[in-house]
Structures are given as structure tokens and as C-alpha cells.
Amino acid sequence: MGPLAGIRIVEMAGIGPGPFCAMMLSDMGAEVIRIDRLSHKGTGHAANVLNRGRKSIALDLKNPAAVAATLRLIASADGLLEGFRPGVMERLGLGPDICLERNPGLVYGRMTGWGQTGPLAHTAGHDINYISIGGALGAMGYSDRPPAPPLNLVGDFGGGAMYLLTGMLAALVEKGKSGKGQVIDAAMTDGTASLLSPFYGLMAMNMWTTDRYSNKLDGGAHYYGSYECSDGKYISIGSIEPQFYALLLQKCGITDEAFLAQQDQSQWPELRNKLTDLFKTKTQTAWCDLMEGTDVCFAPVLDLKEAPAHPHNRARETFIDIDGVTQPAPAPRFSRTQGQVQSPAAIAGEHTESILQDWGFSESDIVALKSVEAI
User: Fold this and answer.
1) If exposure means fewest CB atoms within 10 Å of the residue's CB, which of 254, 257, 298, 359 is most exposed?
2) How does residue 270 score in pLDDT terms, banded at 50, 70 and 90?
3) CA–CA distance, 192 with 68 (Å, rounded to integer)
4) Local confidence band at 8 (pLDDT 50, 70, 90 cut-offs)
């Protein structure tokens, strides 16, 4: 059933980090209902993994009856999450003050790029912008070209959704002591900066510079990076520790004494060039046969289609199939209360009436909402 079984969450439909957080809550057993716009009713796709595990109700939130119905749903929920610009929920009549007055125990999660306050709070933006001022984007990529965006994993999902999830879970735990809800202001800029905490520590200890591609973990070190093979595929090595580095040299048959100066940063570019040439002498499969499963700290670089077939992922059932759609299984894993994917993604408004019934609305209530075109 999952460790969050019995927890009820209202999700205001959005994009990116909000749905990802809701997916995680559902995967861990919470009952999450998604409120979609009535104008979007009938849209969506069952293969949209980000929306899995939740039922959908479509409401016209410009209609006072729909707002009243939403507040009634919120009144019996443990948490709410929304990802609108600051002030939108307030203008809808669904701001935290109103919702917490109706339900003092509500955990009210707010997901934005810039945060609820600050000079950029009301400005449009996307992941790449948030991780830019957070300091992450400027630390990634090669030194001789613009910083490379790491998909939208760092801001939207790492610095955004996972911090909203952590905040909501912490607030739910605290609510168990105090009986009171609270508002979580999760900003992707804040979360991105938080993810960089170790690197600020390294800078303070003079163990990291702001020069891209010149540090131990940003590709600057020859022993930590990815390399092309003879078949055009890639491998990754992370032989940081001396014993793992020694094994790398042994497995690769390297006897060049220049490689003994592992931590001499002035030698890193030349040693990387030598490894580049070496790894192009064999195919990815050949290097896997030689080093995978050893303490070299090695792995093949796989694409999204290849990853599910890797033997380790297959053994752990890291990927699952839901109605013909290959997707990551719920994570993390729990020894007693393992979560599961509750359902494929819902079409907008697919469960409007059943949600209202399950959450305490009578048939006459539903008829009344239909009569004023609130649903």
C-alpha cells in the first residue's frame, strides 16, 4: 500500500516539478486527486508517466460553485500542492489563508521557480534560468563553450520537486505533533543552491574553482569523465580513490609513468588525451567485458532506450511496464510498505463524478454543480 496510505492530497494541475512531486506522493501510497481546468477536459495521454497514479477532476475555477467545491475537497485533505505564479491561488480564492482557515491542519505546498518573494518572484522562467542564478549551470560543461544544460533535472526535479516533496513530508510529520498545517515555499533557485552546498564547502577549503572543466568532479580530471569507444558509444569512469585508479591502470594495461601523477592537475589535459585515444581502441562492449563489475568505478553510458535492458536494472526491476509503457518503478524501496504505481495517467476530468462521490458529495450536490457548469 505504501507508507503514505491514508494520506489525501489535492494537486492543482501544472507542469514539471508539481506533477513529479504528486507522482512521488502517489507512488508512496497517498491518494492524490488532480484538479484540471474544465476547458482541458478530455485532454491528456495515458502514457504521460509524470501524471501516473492520480485520478482527475475537471473544474471551472472561474465559477464560484467550482471554487466552493474545491475548498470542500481541500477541507478533507491532508495536503495541497500548486505550482502557479505567486498570487494566482489567492486570486482564485484558494490562497493559503482561506484554505488553512477551512482546514487548519492542511500542509500547503507551493512550487515556483523564483519563490513566493523576491524581485523576480512574478517573472516567467524555466529550469535553465533558475539553475543559472543558483550557480549550477555556470559550473557545468566545457570551458571553451557555453555551459551545457543538464536536461531539466537540476532545477525542476532535483532542486524543485524533491524539495517540495521533502518539505511536505516534513510538515506532515510535524503536523502529527502539533495538529497544525503550514505553508511550504519551495523555490527552484533555493533548492538548486542547496544542492550546491558541498561545492561551496569545497571552495571555502580551496578545493574547488569556478573555472569549468578544471575540477575533480566536473570533467577536468582525466579519471572522472566519459569517453568515446571505437563503435561511437561511450563509457564512464570515476576512479577517484588511489586503489580504484590503480585498478583502472591495470585493467587498461597502462604502464606510462605519467599516469602515476594522478592528482597533478597540470597533467590532467594530457592524460585525458591519452585516455581518449586508448578508449577508442575497443568497443563499448569490449570495455564492459574488461571492467564492468570491478572496482574501477566503471559503467557504459546508456541512452533512455538502452537503460531498461541493462542486467543490473533488470535484476532490480528498476523499470516496469504499465499498459505497454516502459517507465521507472517507484523509488525508494520500503521493506514493509512498498509503494506501487496506482494507475496509468488519467485523462483530464476522467474521474470527476467518482472523486466527488468518494470525497463526500451527494448526488444532489453533483447535479447542482453540473447545472451551473462548474464541472
Assistant:
1) 257
2) very high
3) 36
4) very high
CA distances for 235 relative to 252, 259, 279, 287, 303, angstroms: 13, 19, 9, 8, 12
| Res. 1: pLDDT tops 90 | no
**What is the mean pLDDT of the segment spanning 290-319?**
98
CA-based end-to-end distance of the chain: 31
At residue 68, φ and ψ (nearest 5 deg) are -65, -40
**Cα 363 from Cα 165, distance rounded (Å):** 35
Q: Identity (one letter) of the amino acid at 124?
A: A
In the CATH hierarchy, which top-level class contains the domain 224-309? alpha beta
List Cβ neighbours of 260 (8 Å cut-off, separation of 6 or more). none
Q: Indicate the average pLDDT of the chain.
A: 97
What is the C-alpha separation between 251 and 223, in angstroms, rounded?
14
* Burial class of residue 28, CB neighbours in 10 A (0-12, 13-18, 19+): buried
Residue 4 has pLDDT above 90, yes or no: yes
Calculate the CA 319 to chain-centre distance.
16
**pLDDT (tens digit per residue) in 332-360:** 999 999 999 999 999 999 999 999 999 99
Given 3.10.129.10, 3.40.50.300, 3.40.50.10540, 1.10.3720.10, which CATH number is that of 8-194+320-372? 3.40.50.10540
> d(Cα 274, Cα 176) in Å, to the nearest integer?
58
- Residue 144 annotated in active site: no
Integer Cα distance of 108 and 18 in angstroms: 12
Q: Is 40 a catalytic residue?
A: no
Length of the chain: 375
pLDDT value at 273 more than 90? yes
- pTM of the entire predicted model: 0.96
Q: Residue by residue, what is the 3-state secondary structure of 7-59?
A: CEEEEECCCCHHHHHHHHHHHCCCEEEEEEEHHHCCCCCCCCHHHCCCEEEEE
**Which one of 27, 36, 156, 190 is the catalytic residue?**
156
